[in-house]
Every structure is written in C-alpha cells, then in structure tokens.
Amino acid sequence: MNQKARQLIFFVAGLIVSIGFDQWTKALAVAKLKGKEPFVLIDGVFEFFYSENRGAAFGIMQGKQILFFIITAAVLLVVILALVRMPASRRYLPLTACLFLLASGAVGNMIDRVIQGYVVDFLYFKLIDFPIFNVADCYVVIATFLLIILAFFVYSEEELSFLSSKKGRADSV
C-alpha cells in the first residue's frame, strides 16, 4: 500500500472514531442529563450540564441553520483540498490528525443540527462561567490550536507551500 493510501486511511479512520466518540458522548448526555440537575464533578468548578444550542459558539446566531451548513461545507472543502494536496509523507501525520479533528468537530455538530435542529452541549466550566460546550467543540479548538503551532513552529514555509500554490501540489505528486 502506498503512503498516500495510508494517509487517507488514517484520516478516514480518525474521522470515524472521533465522530463516533462525539456522538456517543452526546447520546450519554441526553440519556443521563436531559431534564435533570447538573452532575457536579468538582463543586463550583466543573460539571456536566445539559443544554440545547440552536446557535453557534457561545449561543450566537440562534436559528441560522443555513449559514451553519454553508460554513461546515466550506470547512470540509478546505480540509479535503488540503488533504488531497498534502504530500504523502509521515512528516505530515500531525497535520493530517489536525484536519480530521477539525472535520470531525464540524461534522459532529452538523449531525446534531440535521437530526435534532440543535447541538447538544454538556461540558460546563462553572468557575469561570464559560459557555457550555461539547466534544466536537473541543476537537475544533484543539485542531485550531495545533494547526497554529504546526504552522509557526514545526513546518517551514516551503513544507506548507502545497496549501497555496500549484507548484507545491506538483512537487507532492
């Protein structure tokens, strides 16, 4: 099996496992938390608190489902283009992982929007009154943070040239 096929298998496997985990945690939240008092893990600090979010991050843009579909489609398009253009090398394994986490977060929340019309949130840092969030949100934040680290401290500009130029893509084939 060639390196590009391995890269794609890693991406798809990561996508399936991470989306599955996100959906499983949301199903647990619905089964164990919906209609009940929050489950306190650390009093005054962190708890599982069931919430239905019909907006985006921090509850903004309530009811703008079409916009969320467009944003998700754009994110997935960018992820797929980056994956296709990325050189088939173990060097890019961390970048591939970031891409499947980013896609998993987008798809995980989109599944909720399509099936239920809202996103299930259940993780709440009460200490700082941070908005309630879920595993898919964690994926997006972690992937974004790691992408910034990789872009600024791990990969050279030349190694990332496949993202912005036809020359970079030709070099990777």
Give the radius of gyration: 18 Å
Residues in helices, as a percent range: 55-70%
Distance between the termini: 16 Å
Lateral arrangement of strands in the main beta sheet = 1-2-3
Order of helices and strands: HEEHHEHH
How many beta-strand runs? 3
Sheet with most strands: 3 strands, antiparallel
Structural class: mainly alpha
- Contiguous runs where pLDDT drops below 50 for at least 5 residues: 168-173
Proportion of residues in extended strands? 5-15%
Shape: elongated
Features:
173 residues; mainly alpha; 5 helices
Structural description of this entry:
- The chain is mainly α and 173 residues long.
- Helices cover 60% and strands 11% of the residues.
- Strands 1-2-3 form a 3-stranded antiparallel beta sheet.
- A hairpin with a 3-residue loop joins strand 1 and strand 2.
- Helix 2 runs antiparallel to helix 3 and helix 3 packs antiparallel against helix 4.
- The longest helix has 31 residues.
- The radius of gyration is 18 Å and the shape is elongated.
- The two termini are 16 Å apart.
- The C terminus is likely disordered.
What's this model, at a glance?
A hairpin with a 3-residue loop joins strand 1 and strand 2 (46-53).
